Write the structure tokens for this entry.
Amino acid sequence: MIGLLFNGVWSQYAFAKAGKYQHLYRLLYIHDLTEASLQGLKAIAVPFQSNQAAIRERKGLIYNFLKQGGKVFVAGDSTADWLDAQWEDRPVNNYWWVKDPNNPPVSQTDYSHPIYEGLSARHACWHTHGVYTRIPEHARIVQTNGKGEVISWETNHYGGTLFVTTLDPIVEHGIQQITHLDHYVDKLTEWLCGVKPEGQFEMQAADYGVAWEND
Amino acid sequence: MIKAAVIDNGIVGLRESYLDQPHVQYDFLPTHQATAPDFSPYDLLVVPNGTDQVAMYRWREAVQGFLNQGKTLFCFDGWFTNWLPGSQWMADNSKKTIDIRYTLKSDHYGLFEGVDLDHFIFSNGISGWWACGYIQPTPNAEVVVADTWGRCIMLLDEQTTPGTIFATASGPLGDYAYGTTDDAGSMEGLTRLYHNLLTKLIKIPVS
């Protein structure tokens, strides 16, 4: 099971409730997160549109999870308050595939990484949310853009594996406007928990118009 | 001067989307507290795109109280929890974005004056960029914009509560839409519609 840090954002919720992922991801509302919330999890996913200030207040939980050998996946933006790296914003180009299809936002990818192994270039990048202008000395670069700026990086320095990217696979897959994201997200999920998701991304009407189940 | 409160769950780009202007001033209310903030000083409550819908559910009684005072709620997000009085947003992935078109159904306040609806349909030539899913409107509500399949995408409800509810099916409105679009027409459209909402829908009591 993967814990999905949850900022109450609908796309994060829609992803975790989708038929093919609901048995693999557990929503962990960030303001209710405790040590007990992380018990028994194989991995933590921190999606785009997270509450960086709230994560900073609980960063000890994340680094303790890493220390115990867990995997942590961080997507989109972040702050140097809890991650030893510097994220910077950049304009989001989500139409390159129409206007300049030979110039995607990521130009170099290490396809030997288990998340990317077997993915096509198109499936390895749809758009990015900023870049990393500084990463830890112990980190390995996995993806860069055409300017050589870092998009994805990884380190084992903290015990387990910390993978960080400015891609936004979970939020974007929850939105369901990009039709090919199953490729990336299924590889990501398998890497995080060892189980390859199967089936369709089904949205159930019964999951909408609900009380918050943990209340 | 409109005094507005924006629900703030700390996502990137949020604060740049609502900028103080001579006719409107914003406070940002963080979502880390379990108890609802005091909405009483405000004329307008903005629930922006990407909001914490768990917090909104926990604060639902305070929102109802705010609307009972005859004040105005803008919701530009997909409210999967059932805190918004009357109507309900639903996620849906059964339609292709390439087929999405919008139609203006009703607009007696002139909210679309100077606004080109095509700017909400196409961004950089790609359709279906703006809203997601649809709204199940209460029968009391006015459907302002519907999609290709006649589903409610933009709603005005002045009947369910003493206040005014304007909601979109997760279509962002404001001074900016971080990461959503950089198409000049789309940016102009969503900004102009937002400021039309401010000038035409907000009822400020004469003091």
Q: What stands out?
A: Chain A is about 25% helix and 20% strand. The mean pLDDT of chain A is 96. The domain at 2-207 of chain A is CATH 3.40.50.880 (Rossmann fold). Helices of chain A lie at 10-17, 52-57, 59-67, 96-99, 121-124, 169-175, 181-193.
